[in-house]
Amino acid sequence: MIKKKKRAVTIKDIAREAGVSISTVSFAFNGTAPVAQETKDRIFEVINRLNYRPNSAARGLVTRKTNNICLFTPHPTSDFFSFSGNGVFSDLMQGIGEVLDQKDYNLLISWDTVGYKAKTPKLIRLIREQAMDGVLICLPSQDSSIINELNEHNFPLVIIGGADKSSAVNTVDVDNHEISYRVTRHLLELGHKRIAFISPGQLEFLVCEDRLEGYKEAMSDAGLKVRDDYIFIGDETESSGYRAAEAFMSLKEPPTAIVAGRDIQAVGVLEYTKEHDISVPQTLALVSFENSQLAEKHGITSITTNLYEIGKEGAKLLIKLLNRKKERAAQNMVIPSGLVVRGSSQPQSESSAPSVAASTESISVRTRSRKQ
């Protein structure tokens, strides 16, 4: 015999049992209007006794909140951004997820093709459909038109990563120009003058442009000319690092050091040096960005970009925006970075040591404001 499924407890049942109206139960549960403490206690006693669980959709109609936060990213098959096997993205997700879980928010993930030019972008459609309360946007592109449109809707948003300097929008990121300057400066201080650079992606992406400009500025400040044949536009693959090293080391005057835009690219560089018996760091020094497990595993000097902290602080900032009563100037939060020096860039006299302690210098947290 099939047992009849027990009917779920509804708000009507709570109201009838507590001897109050349905609206009073709703006011007490959602805090949308004052309810006498004695009445509230009676309502919650019934709620606990009957094990009432509110329907989230119905609750949203009352509170006008979904308790959903959207993480909007480029398409995961783009040549700059992917989810599969991307430990850095996992760190970002963990930082965001921990904060939202503490605040009882759900995390939705949505993406669009990089440079998507539809008449009504997907993100705008989601906002019009009231699918979420706020949005965290990974915006590697320099196209800020979507940000301007979101601002027109007065919708709570935080950019994970840098945004166009002209955009009055809340952002959380590392200072990519500064950290690129620092890793290049590290090689210059070791005595290198022929230093090549691998971009983490196409220069249409802000992070790539900022890191290239940081490298160029460090070279210029050292009185060195930047050579076009010492710049390689890479992507998110190990093979792009291999191909860059192949291009550089086949030059008549090859570099003595390389700044790789990502740890995964640096691994590709090391693969090339192993196959061609090029000693690191004696013949070729190597530095990188991210300071991921790859850098630690392969002994690569790398500077932290700490996506976990970026995700965490981005989520915190968005929660603040959702709870604010008054409009304030946009904040641009800079997460500190530290250079971890390992065997790939030590002076020759120290190259036999597997690693050295992380540099104590770091970029201090800075919060700048832009007027809306």
Automatic annotation (TrEMBL):
Keyword match Transcription:
yes
Enumerate the SUPFAM superfamilies for this protein: lambda repressor-like DNA-binding domains, Periplasmic binding protein-like I
Residue ranges of every copy of the HTH lacI-type domain listed in the record: 9-63
PROSITE patterns on file: HTH_LACI_2
InterPro entries, per this entry? HTH_LacI, LacI/GalR-like_sensor, Lambda_DNA-bd_dom_sf, Peripla_BP_I
For this protein, the record's Pfam families field holds: LacI, Peripla_BP_3
- Per the record, where are the segments of Low complexity compositional bias? 344-362
Keywords per UniProt: DNA-binding, Transcription, Transcription regulation
Renumbered residue ranges of the record's region Disordered = 340-372
What is the top-level taxon of the source organism? Bacteria
Q: Gene3D superfamilies this protein is in?
A: 3.40.50.2300, lambda repressor-like DNA-binding domains
- Keyword Transcription set for record: yes
Please state what the protein is called.
LacI family transcriptional regulator
Annotated source species = Paenibacillus spongiae
Lineage summary: Bacteria, Bacillati, Bacillota, Bacilli, Bacillales
